[in-house]
Automatic annotation (TrEMBL):
<dbReference type="InterPro" id="IPR000626">
    <property type="entry name" value="Ubiquitin-like_dom"/>
</dbReference>
<dbReference type="InterPro" id="IPR022617">
    <property type="entry name" value="Rad60/SUMO-like_dom"/>
</dbReference>
<feature type="domain" description="Ubiquitin-like">
    <location>
        <begin position="21"/>
        <end position="101"/>
    </location>
</feature>
<protein>
    <recommendedName>
        <fullName>Ubiquitin-like domain-containing protein</fullName>
    </recommendedName>
</protein>
<feature type="region of interest" description="Disordered">
    <location>
        <begin position="1"/>
        <end position="36"/>
    </location>
</feature>
<dbReference type="Pfam" id="PF11976">
    <property type="entry name" value="Rad60-SLD"/>
</dbReference>
<dbReference type="InterPro" id="IPR029071">
    <property type="entry name" value="Ubiquitin-like_domsf"/>
</dbReference>
C-alpha cells in the first residue's frame, strides 16, 4: 500500500487555467486619470482588448498604436495577453498613430 494520498488539482491558477487580470489602458491623447480599466482572463486575445478600447473611445482601431513596456503591440495581434507578459495591474499606453507625409 502506498502512503500517498490522491490529490486532485485545485481550481484556478494552480491548475494551470487562465487567471483573471485587470489591465489599464492609458490614452496618451487624453487627460490623466481617464484610464480605461478592463478585467479579463489572461487567455483573452489582445485584438479583443484593442477593439474594446477603440469602441469605447469612439476611434478606429487602425489609427491607434499600443505600447507595453516599450514594445509596440499590433492591435490585430491574436496572442493572448498572458503570453505577451501582461499581468494584473499592468498599463498599456495608447497613442494615435503618427502619419508621415501627406
Amino acid at each position: 500500500m502506498s502512503d500517498m494520498k490522491s490529490a486532485s488539482p485545485a481550481p484556478g491558477p494552480a491548475a494551470g487555467g487562465p487567471t483573471q487580470i485587470t489591465l489599464k489602458l492609458r490614452d496618451l491623447d487624453s487627460d490623466p486619470g481617464d484610464d480605461l480599466e478592463v478585467r479579463m482572463r489572461s487567455s483573452t486575445k489582445f485584438i479583443r482588448l484593442a477593439r474594446t478600447f477603440a469602441t469605447r473611445q469612439n476611434r478606429e482601431l487602425s489609427e491607434l498604436r499600443f505600447m507595453f513596456k516599450g514594445r509596440r503591440i499590433l492591435p490585430t495581434s491574436e496572442a493572448p495577453v498572458g503570453d505577451l507578459g501582461m499581468v494584473d495591474g499592468d498599463t498599456i499606453e495608447v497613442s494615435p498613430k503618427v502619419m508621415i507625409g501627406g
